[in-house]
Write a structure and sequence with these properties.
Length: 241
């Protein structure tokens, strides 16, 4: 690791960096203030510093959340180019950012570009991590969703069903990955009119949610369960003759 990557932030820099830890953009970093802060911090810490790279990624996330997905893509493309130059083509963080970029490309209407990027991400993660690592499975789920959005619903379902069965056969500690894939599969089944199968899997997800502990914040579980139960009520109506 280079000298610039080991620089310790000053107290003032740490205070600014804490703002980039938040999922909701703080008022102190609204508008051009975030770019200005990143530029100032880069001069202090160096462009390769982990905190700078994290701040650049978070700035793109905020832009997407705020509706400027095109602006988010520009920043992520620049971030991937820099990470690849500095850390090599197998930099895992760059690969994960490209997975986010695939979703963003779909959001701006570039479905062909999104599919190509998502396929490349799956190929790279499979090579670097293997086919059964959590990031690989999630990337495959993202690719399946993009295929469905491209109009091939049969292939969408085939991939998600296969992915779900693969995930269930892995270490139970990866249950969060399995649940994410199951959620996507229920949505796909409902979209394709397979209501009974969707309802069966949704009941499995509801049972998993009942057994989930959220620790201190009890409201998280309440909100999620209410959402699942409302979903179930709507599916029951669709299943009924």
């Amino acid at each position: 690791m280079g000298t610039e990557e080991r620089r310790r932030p000053t107290w003032g820099a740490r205070r600014v960096l804490r703002g980039f830890d938040k999922y909701e953009r703080p008022g102190s970093l609204r508008g051009p203030k975030a770019d200005e802060a990143i530029a100032d911090l880069t001069r202090t810490l160096g462009p390769r510093h982990p905190d700078i790279l994290k701040a650049r990624d978070r700035q793109a996330y905020w832009l997407h959340r705020e509706g400027d997905t095109a602006g988010a893509l520009v920043r992520l493309e620049s971030l991937v180019a820099d990470r690849t130059e500095w850390f090599g083509s197998d930099d895992l963080d760059a690969v994960k950012i490209r997975s986010t970029m695939a979703r963003y490309r779909r959001s701006v209407g570039d479905l062909e570009g999104a599919l190509a990027l998502a396929e490349a991400v799956v190929t790279d993660l499979t090579r670097l991590h293997g086919p059964d690592e959590r990031d690989t499975l999630r990337a495959e789920s993202t690719l399946a969703g993009l295929i469905g959005q491209n109009g091939d619903r049969a292939e969408w379902l085939r991939r998600l069903r296969s992915l779900y069965e693969r995930s269930r056969s892995l270490d139970p500690r990866r249950d969060s990955v399995t649940r994410g894939i199951r959620w996507n599969l229920v949505e796909a089944l409902e979209r394709c009119g397979e209501y009974r199968e969707a309802l069966t899997l949704l009941d499995v997800e509801i049972d998993a949610e009942r057994r989930t502990s959220y620790g201190v914040d009890e409201n998280l579980g309440d909100w999620q369960m209410k959402r699942l139960q409302e979903w179930r009520r709507n599916l029951v109506v669709k299943v009924s003759p």
